[in-house]
Request: fold
Amino acid sequence: MQIRNYMEDMVSDALEELLVQKDDICKCQKCKLDMMVWALNRLPPKYAVSEKGRLFTKLEEEETQFKADVTRELTKAIVNINKNPRH
Ligand SMILES: [Zn+2]
Reply:
């Protein structure tokens, strides 16, 4: 058993979805991690006990609720990191 911040999973998945639609944004590992960190520092952590890996089925309802916040912060993160990339 372990504790997971599943906001990390949500941000990771949402970032991939957002970047697919953007041709002019660097998608290297460093930039993607910087975008995730930027957004995660501005979103509340969501901890859950996990036996292994992800636990999506149980969290679908909450995920829908937070999706708008995640998308909003990630959109800002993409703009910010792209302006000042550290790769
Ligand atoms: Zn990059």
